[in-house]
Amino acid sequence: MGKPILQVSNLRTCFQTDEGSVKAVDDISFSVKQGETVCLVGESGCGKSVTAMSIMGLLQGQASVTGRMELAGNELTTLSKGEMRRLRGNELAMIFQEPMTSLNPVLTIGEQMIEVLLEHKPISKKQARMKALELIKRVGIGREEQVLKSYPHQMSGGMLQRIMIAIALACEPKMLIADEPTTALDVTIQAQILELLKQLKDSQGMSMLLITHDLGVVAEVADYVVVMYAGKIIEQGSVHEIFFNPKHPYTKGLLQAKPVIGQRKKKLYTIPGQVPPLIDLKPSCYFADRCSHCMDICLDQAPSLINDGDEEGHRVACWLYEKVAQ
User: Which range marks the domain in which residue 255 is found?
Assistant: First the structure.
């Protein structure tokens, strides 16, 4: 792995509502090295997608984003809307969760692919069309000419996801963010999409931030894992450390809840309770109400991320590993 291509430091994203301030992302820091795949993991509502949208600069209205986000030397938070627009799709690209809602239903696939290329590359419309045909073939779809003339509703979910990947990679970005790219697909197509992403990433030397709640996907593609809960990072480390030496009770619960092929159980394990509402949270461990190891200090103070693992870079935010609590 090379030096960090994406550096996120003290990122906070809040939404102002009539009921109070919602801390969707609460002071998180992580990096993605050149050629590395980092997986952002956690259940729905933990802040994964908001983190991605904050990095992409796509949040508007009631959102307040603070902190530092640096991509290959460019400080994203200081860029103008025009500069950010030129960066998005070019050096920084994203694959969204639902391809059917991410593509324009009244434009052909070809029109949407060619638009991206003309926006970011100094090429003619004819050259952009040839590049679009090449990209469609590269992501494993045949009948390129027919696909180029098709509308999104005329294609299957798996094909649309491949088109989204082709659009995201059209300008050979340094950094790709993939937000649950296999959620709506069946298992066979999921495996094909993951393999395709791995091949394209390796061939282009690209870095990837993959957002998922599926630990099977994490085991398949991740180099490094960041576990989020209620807007905070509660554990991070190499994929080996997270799977074979998990520290945080929440991470252990996620792994315990994962079905294992060949093992028969009457009932899958579930983590008790619910994620707390993210409005005006008090300083504490947000997982305390669901944790069987909860101590008095957990209810009064928020733990900080500390190094605690067999490998450098394995960090956990839990009072079980803080000497002051013991």
Answer: 4-91+171-325
Report the amino acid identity of residue 125. K
Whether pTM exceeds 0.85: yes
Give the distance, in angstroms, between the CA of residue 324 and the centroid of all CA atoms in the same chain.
34
pLDDT at 6 over 90: yes
Cα(77)–Cα(79) distance, integer angstroms? 6
Q: Which of 250, 326, 321 is nearest to 288 (CA)?
A: 250
What residues contact residue 160 under an 8 Å CB cut-off, 6+ apart?
99, 100, 103, 152
Could you give the number of structural domains in the chain?
Answer: 2
CATH of the domain at 83: 3.40.50.300
Q: Yes or no: say if 6 and 209 are a contact pair by the CB < 8 Å rule.
A: yes
Q: How do residues 191-237 score in pLDDT, each as one tens digit?
A: 888 888 888 888 888 899 999 988 888 988 999 999 999 999 999 99
Q: What are phi and psi of 216, to 5 degrees?
A: -65, -40
Say how far apart CA 220 and CA 226 lie, in whole Å: 15
Assess if residue 16 is contained within a domain: yes
pLDDT band at 53 (very low <50, low <70, confident <90, very high): very high
Distance CA(194)–CA(53), nearest Å, equals 22
Residue 95 near residue 47 (C-beta atoms within 8 A):
no
The DSSP result for 238-304, as a single string, is EHHHHHHS--SHHHHHHHHTS--TT---SS-----S-PPP-BS--SS-TTGGG-TT--HHHHHSPPP
- Give tens-digit pLDDT for 165-186: 889 888 888 999 999 887 767 7
Which two three-digit tokens encode residue 134? Answer: 């090449």
List the beta bridge partners of residue 208. 37, 176
97 located within any domain: no
Q: What is the DSSP string of 55-115?
A: HHT---TTEEEEEEEEETTEEGGGS-HHHHHHHBTTTEEEE-S-HHHHS-TTS-HHHHHHH
